Amino acid sequence: MRNALWLSLLIATALHAETSASHSFPQPCPEVQSAALALFQHNGLPLTPDPACPLCFTGKTEHLKDAAGHPVHGARTAIKRYMDTSRDGRNIPGAWLVHRDLTTTANLRLEQTATACTGHLLFGYSWYATEILVILPVDGDPASRPSNLRLEHEYLDQITKDVRPHP
Q1: Does the predicted TM-score (pTM) go above 0.85?
Q2: Residue 131 pLDDT greater than 80, yes or no
Q3: What is the arithmetic mean of pLDDT over 14-36?
Q4: In the chain, N or C: fewer CB atoms in 10 Å?
């Protein structure tokens, strides 16, 4: 079940890969990397290097925090605040959804140029959703949504504050 959930998240992330948030830092990538990894570690989302991609990092957590380190309580809050809600996800009119087991995956990629380091960040969200009609559960499936990029920009802004000023 966890593998299927992970696979659906990877597919959803790949389908929306063009929507990552980007930021250009005047510092070299090793300095940006150090600040970024420290921030993610502090917020309970340790990133590990991707062996297939230099300067790429990924991490996963079930305890989402914003860039300031404040917990995001529950999948419903995360959906409203950090996900694309252009489609509410309901299949049956009048039904409501119960969301549980929110998992967040972070993908950070750094690119060094002659004068700057560009950071690309994308969060992926998945959870288990149960559709309820009146009081009866009618459907339950793994679910995911693309990011609205708000949390990515919050993290990139915080990394900007945390990285040493470049002379």
Answers
A1: no
A2: no
A3: 84
A4: C
